[in-house]
Amino acid sequence: MTRLKNKVALVTGGARGIGAAIVERLCAEGAAVAFTYVTAKQPAEALVKAIGKAGGVALAIRADSGDAEAVKAAVAETVEVFGRLDILVNNAAIEIPGTIDSYPLEKFDRMIAVNIKGPFIAAQEAVRHMKEGGRIINIGSVSSDFMPVPEHAVYAMTKGAVASLTRGLARDLGPRGITVNNVQPGRVETDLLRAISSAPGGEKVREPVALKRLGKSEEVASLVAYLASAESSFVTGANMKVDGGASA
Ligand SMILES: NC(=O)c1ccc[n+]([C@@H]2O[C@H](COP(=O)([O-])OP(=O)(O)OC[C@H]3O[C@@H](n4cnc5c(N)ncnc54)[C@H](OP(=O)(O)O)[C@@H]3O)[C@@H](O)[C@H]2O)c1
Asked: Ketoreductase domain location, by residue (predicted)?
């Protein structure tokens, strides 16, 4: 498939989990893809190598989404290296669980910085370079509408903000022909889900899935690839669940 030939993408948090599957899929569709990482240096380098071997082009950039200057620099480096930017995928996010009685405010601020402010700044910087046909794809979560277990209120709040930001940006950027959509995974087998499901009461996370299995990162990446392509040209402001029917 070459739906994304000659396109340039930036994926935040692309060295592992859902982000890595998105990087691989966008490259397989023909895009040159820059991606950020923070701790996963070796997986990032290995991914760049593997994509190069398969005939694709990828670039790993160390950038903490909670650091505004680093996010700005990552967008600038992508444009400097590849000459343009067509697709931004705001994938990086963290989850620091806890109940309201003891939730430290520094952690609350960090959740907001990484999960909300980082995606906003990335979008703000990216649209300086995007032309008509540009794509912003946020990775939210079904948690913004549906939270079956305790201790994830702050995470759910940040993903609710991502859904609202998506709708508002779709209005702002629609006149420029740039689409903005929110992909909302349900239970997808990654390190993040393993952390949630191993917390007290976490077994409930698996219970409601209509398809009776966890999702795969590749099953999220395929929707991202569609939204990144010209095939989704009349889709914007949408919040699209990939959750195996968990919230059906
Ligand atoms: N897995 C699920 O079931 C599920 C469900 C709903 C929504 N989601 C959403 O899907 C997205 C990916 O989740 P995942 O399950 O793949 O998570 P994950 O396995 O925990 O991976 C998180 C990714 O985000 C990166 N990251 C974390 N903090 C960062 C920061 N401050 N700056 C830049 N990158 C950072 C990590 O980079 P390093 O490894 O380099 O630190 C890693 O690549 C997130 O937005 C998450 O909220 C996941």
From this structure: 7-186
* Nearest Cα to Cα of residue 65 among 127, 136, 14: 14
Task: Tell me the three state secondary structure of residue 181.
Answer: strand
For residue range 57-99, list pLDDT tens digits in order.
999 999 999 999 999 999 999 999 999 999 999 999 999 999 9
pLDDT in tens, 143-189: 999 988 889 999 999 999 999 999 999 999 999 999 999 999 999 99
- Whether 229 is in the pocket of ligand 1, judged by its Cβ within 6 Å, is no
List the beta bridge partners of residue 179. 135
Catalytic site residue from 37, 103, 155, 226: 155
Q: Which domains are seen in the chain, by residue range? A: 8-242 (3.40.50.720)
Q: Is the shortest distance between the CB of 190 and ligand 1 below 6 Å? A: yes
Ligand 1 lined by 114 (C-beta under 6 Å): yes
* Cβ neighbour number for residue 97 with a 10 Å cutoff: 18
Strands, sheet with 135-139, edge to edge from the N-terminal-most edge strand: 57-62, 32-37, 8-11, 87-90, 135-139, 179-185, 239-242
Query: Best of 12, 16, 120 to mutate for ligand 1, by most ligand atoms within 8 A of CB?
Result: 16
Instruction: Specify whether 155 is catalytic.
Output: yes
Residue 8 forms beta bridges with which residues? 32
